Amino acid sequence: MHDQYGPIVRINPDELHIRDSKQYEVVYSGKRDKWPPAATMAGMEMQTFATVPHDLHRKRRAANMPLMGKRVIVDAVPLIHSKASKLRDAFDAAAGSGQPLELGVTCLAYTTDVVGEHFSQQSLGMQDDSRKARQWKTATHMIATMTPVIKQFPWFLKPALLLPPAVMDKMAPDMAALLGVHRDMQVRAKAFLDEVRHKPANHSGYEKHDRPATLFHSIYEHPGPPEEKSVTRLFQEGVNVIIAGSETTARVLTRALYELTVNRDALIKTRHELRDTATRLDRSVEELTLTELEHLPWLAAVIKEALRIAAIPTSRLPLQAHEPLQYKQWTTPAMTPVSLTPYDVLYDPDIFPEPSSFQPDRWLTASDDGTLELHTALERFFVIFGKGPRMCQGINLAYAELYLALAILITSFDLDLFDVVKERDIDYTADCFLGETRADSPGVRVLVKKIGPEGA
């Protein structure tokens, strides 16, 4: 459509779509409402992601932030590290058995347990129960494939939640898994509110200015009217955090491991960088701090390129500016829904030459003293987490999970692909807000080989 009609197109009676990477920051910065038809895809209007008005979104975002800031995530590193160690144990077990390991399930178990324990202080136990992890992977896939349906019929979830679980198990077992997540979070939210309302003087369990114990505490403690502390508000935000915070990061970790397996030169450079740094600091790789890992140029570049090439959000993201927007010779009136598609930016060949090729070195440049550092010129086009006031709040946690897991796995194991077909198991063939691979994909499976400290 853009090839025929130009960089700005009216794609339906109400909405304009732009394909121009340099315009992304303009569209997504400043005071913006979410276009209501786009907000309905979640089927839960009280979660932050689905909030339409800018001012209300800002307040809900602020209520979540005490558990998402950089300092809080640094404090959570021991938790993340413990889950990354369990992830290594899963790879160890696969190496010992000689059986293929499905990266998607294993990585999702890791990220889900991190998110669950960080935001609720309750481990979901995915890493300890492979059957439960596979069911959760099926459920997240169901959530993705149901998104286009829920976007058109946002009322669908409410009556479905009223059906007895046994009925849903027989009618649609995958859908039952999704509804089970909703029901479980509802029960937790109600139990939390029942408890704090019976203990008004000491409901939070922490002193003022300290880190909230859970996401529910964070929202409940934030100033706001009663409806912002309701069961519905709490459970919907909880569902959003668990699903969005686990599936997306797991996909990026899976893609990073796949690309490093295919592109061994990048793997070896990153592995040597990690080992050399650990040797210089007289520590093991597992003892390197998050800050130290973040300053390793090759590891940072691998993670950035994995995030870019995964390009998980494949749908457009329409927002409404409170002021007229100027794009070249066109002026769009205030409150006109305007969107770009993150995938278009991340795969723009004018910004990222050979965009389908995994090239971590595109993010690297030599400093004056000859050492490598991250190339800041591309940062404005790194839109995987979005831009502006609706940027993904989970960015700090996602980065921490990726740095800690990859550092351990890269220096401990070699992987060989097991019956992986790129067109079937890696490339997106469907847009369900997140990109989806072919329905017959068995996932990204690998054979794991343990390597010693000096392994190439």
UniProtKB/TrEMBL annotation:
Q: Name one Pfam family in it.
A: p450
The protein's matches in SUPFAM superfamilies, at most eight in alphabetical order, are given as: Cytochrome P450
Q: State where heme binds.
A: 392
What domain of life does the native source organism fall in?
Eukaryota
Keyword Iron, does the record have it? yes
Which InterPro entries is this protein grouped with? Cyt_P450, Cyt_P450_E_grp-I, Cyt_P450_sf, Cytochrome_P450_monoxygenase
- Which molecular function terms from Gene Ontology are attached? heme binding; iron ion binding; monooxygenase activity; oxidoreductase activity, acting on paired donors, with incorporation or reduction of molecular oxygen
Required co-factor(s) are: heme
Any idea which UniProt keywords this protein has?
Heme, Iron, Metal-binding, Monooxygenase, Oxidoreductase
CDD domains in alphabetical order: CYP58-like (cd11062)
Q: Which family does it belong to?
A: Belongs to the cytochrome P450 family.
**How is this protein named in the record?**
Cytochrome P450
